[in-house]
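COURSE: Structural Biology Practicum
ASSIGNMENT: Worksheet 4, Part C
STUDENT ID: 0417
INSTRUCTIONS: Below are two proteins. For each, the amino acid sequence is given first, followed by its C-alpha cell string. Answer the questions at the end about the second protein only.

PROTEIN I
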Amino acid sequence: MKTDQIQSFVMRYLEAEKCDILEKHPAYVTVKLSPSADRELTYRPYYWTLVERTGATPETMTCTFVFDPEAHKASLTSANSTATSPVSSDLQAAGSTAAQTTANPTGTTAPAAPGAPAQQDSILGRYFGFVPTQMTARVPKDEVTFGSRRLEQIFQAVRNKGRFVHLYEHYKPEHQPRSSPMSTTAYETWLQVNFKVEFACDMKRSEIHSLGFHMVTGEICENFQERLLNKRLSPRIPAQVYMIPDKFTLPRAVIYLEQYLETILRNYDHSWAAEAKLRLEDELQRIRSYYEPLILHAELEKKHEIDTQYSKRRQEIDWQFRPRIQISVINCGLFHLHTGNPAMN
C-alpha cells in the first residue's frame, strides 16, 4: 500500500469511529479517540474496568498518527526554526502555570482568575481529592506505515467489526403520487459472502469473489460488491417498508454459494498445479540424492539423527511446493434492497 492509500484508509476508520480530528497535516493527523476506538487501539484494560465499575465519564487518549515520517520530521524542523523567543515564552508559560496552581497555607488552592477555565473533573480528583498540580497530557506518536504494528492493529479492528453486517437500502422514489402518501415499498433480501481464493505452491496468487444469493428466488449474482457501491445503506430500516418472506434458510444459501464457487474453480486452467508437481518431484529428488548416501554410510548412532532431519526436510519441501487451493471467508452480510416493483397501498 502507498502512503496516500494508508492515509485514506485510516481517515475513513477514524471518521467511522467518530473520533475528533484535532490537527490534520499531509504527513500526520492528531485525533482524540472515541471510547470505542480507545478500547481497540490503546491497551488500558484496568482503566476501562474502573470506568465500567464506577460509571465515570471516560477520558480517551489523544494520539498522533504519522503517515510520512520524513515529511513529519521536516515539518517539526521548520516549526522550530520559525518560532520566536522560545526560551522566554517557556518561562512565561511556566510562571503563569505556577501562579495559577499556588496553594494557600490552609491547603486550599487560590481562587482562579476571572475568565479562567474551570478545571475538568477527573476520576482521580473525584475519588482521591483535588490534585493542584496541572499535568500536561502526553500525546503518543505512532508511525502508521505499511507493515507497522499500529496499522496492523487498525486492520484487525476493521476485520473484527466488519465480519458481518446487516443493512437496509435507503430508497426514495423519484415520483411519488400525492394521492397515496401511505404507500409501502417491497424489499428483498440478499446474502453476500466475500470469498478469498488462494492458489498456493512455491508461488501464490489470490482472488476475491463477491457472491450474492437472493433469499427468495435463489439467484446467484457475481461481483455483488460492485452492485452495492451506488446504493445508500443504513443499519436502520426505512419507514413504510415491508419485507418479502425468504424461501431459503441461511445454511442452505451458504451451501449453494459454496457449490457455485466450486463450479467456477473447476473451469479454471490448472496447468499451474501440474507444473508445481514437477517442481516438487525435482526438489524431492535433489534432497533424496543428498540424504540417502549420508544415511547409507553413516555410523549406526548417527543414522537416526540424519533420518529425522531427512524426514523433516521432506515435509518442508512438500508443504512449500505441493499445489493447493485454499478458500476462506473475508466477510458477509444481509442486505435488504428495493425490489424495483411498484409501491403498494
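PROTEIN II
(use this one for the questions)
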Amino acid sequence: MSQVEKLYESLKKLQEPKGYFFNPDKDLVFDLLRGLLTNKERYGYMSCPCRLAQADRDKDRDIICPCEYREPDVSEYGACYCALYVSKDVLEGKASKVQVPERRPRELMAF
C-alpha cells in the first residue's frame, strides 16, 4: 500500500465519524493527499496544498490540514476550500458543491 493510500485510509477513519467525507472524485483526492505528503516532507507538517505555506508552523497553523476553515466551509458550501472534504449531502449527490471563497485573512497569506 502506498503512502497516499495509507493516508487516505487513516484520514477516512478519523474524519468520517466527524461528518467530513472525501470528495467523490478520487483522482482529485489522491492529488491533494500527495500535496499534503509533499508539504509534510518540505515543512514537517501537512499544510493545505491549495494555499501558500510560509514554512513556519506558527504562521501556518490555521492551514494545517484539516485547516481551521474546513468546518465553516463544509457547513456553508458543502466542501472545504480545496474540495478535499465534502458534506454527506454532497457525497450522496443530494447537494452540489460550489466554488468556495477563500476565508483565510489576507494578513496571514504568504506573498
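ANSWER KEY EXCERPT:
Q1: The mean pLDDT is 95.
Q2: The first strand starts at residue 21 and ends at 22.
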